[in-house]
Write a structure and sequence with these properties.
This protein is an all-alpha fold and about 110 residues long. The protein contains four helices and no strands.
Length: about 110
């Protein structure tokens, strides 16, 4: 999470406000440390995804290459997420407070 492009994304997400970008980055790092990303990626993706992340949430594989693939038919949770979840990017930050946004199709 410390490559220049990623840091620029945090800065852009906060419209150039360095202090807000710093807080967002620190919150992201703390969240990644407290969340078992490998288990989550393995639960919703192809087998072996748990090996892509270290215990602190950092990537164990080349961060410049996205290798995760979703597996919609793996279990009932995956089928639900695949059917109702939003898969794509939002054009602008839709949350004024910077919270994570989940979008569901109903």
């Amino acid at each position: 999470l410390c490559d220049p492009l990623t840091l620029e994304r945090f800065l852009n997400a906060r419209n150039g406000d360095v202090e807000s970008a710093k807080k967002m980055y620190q919150n992201t790092v703390a969240w990644r440390k407290s969340t078992n990303l490998g288990a989550a990626m393995s639960k919703y993706g192809e087998a072996g995804q748990e090996n892509h992340y270290n215990g602190d949430g950092s990537r164990a594989t080349d961060a410049s290459v996205w290798t995760w693939r979703r597996s919609p038919n793996k279990n009932a949770d995956c089928e639900l997420i695949h059917r109702l979840g939003f898969w794509g990017r939002l054009p602008d930050p839709a949350s004024d407070d910077g919270d994570v946004i989940a979008v569901w199709r109903l």
